[in-house]
């Protein structure tokens, strides 16, 4: 499967037969808005607001000194993965005070891609915990930030205590090819789970 070329056309291809809702989740300032914007073939819907001094008192800004805006509802984008399959991407707010909001967004979602940052791996536990409570399957993509420590994926898997079956990949949320590969890892995982559940 390969990504479709970017297009300003808001209409779906007539050959599309299947639509899937996927979440892009992760802690505050992990790159969700960038990821959705990089992949969306339509102009992404964004609900970013300028960060305030009051917000700085409750949001962990460590390692994010250049961040000036934050998502307060969701990001939305669309990616036609092949002639028959379209993905609707919903990026969630990362702050814990918005957890209830993105719990509601899991309705109808087939799975989630968890973005992780090696500078703040422990911040991913709350996010993965919510997904597990809701029974939503997920893959993890380590977003490679400039200057962030680089660890072997096996070390990251151990640090995050991931199951062997949980896909773990690297990505650069700014790069379309890299981000597409991360999304494909999730889609292939979801397809494999569906196949396993089908009666012989």
TrEMBL record:
Signal peptide: none
Keyword set includes GTP-binding: yes
Top-level taxon of origin: Bacteria
Pfam families the UniProt entry points to: ATP_bind_1
UniProt entry tagged with the keyword Magnesium: no
UniProtKB keywords: GTP-binding, Hydrolase, Nucleotide-binding
Coiled-coil zones: none
Xref: Gene3D superfamilies: P-loop containing nucleotide triphosphate hydrolases
Family as reported in the entry's similarity comment: Belongs to the GPN-loop GTPase family.
Record protein name field: ATP/GTP-binding protein
Organism: Streptomyces gottesmaniae
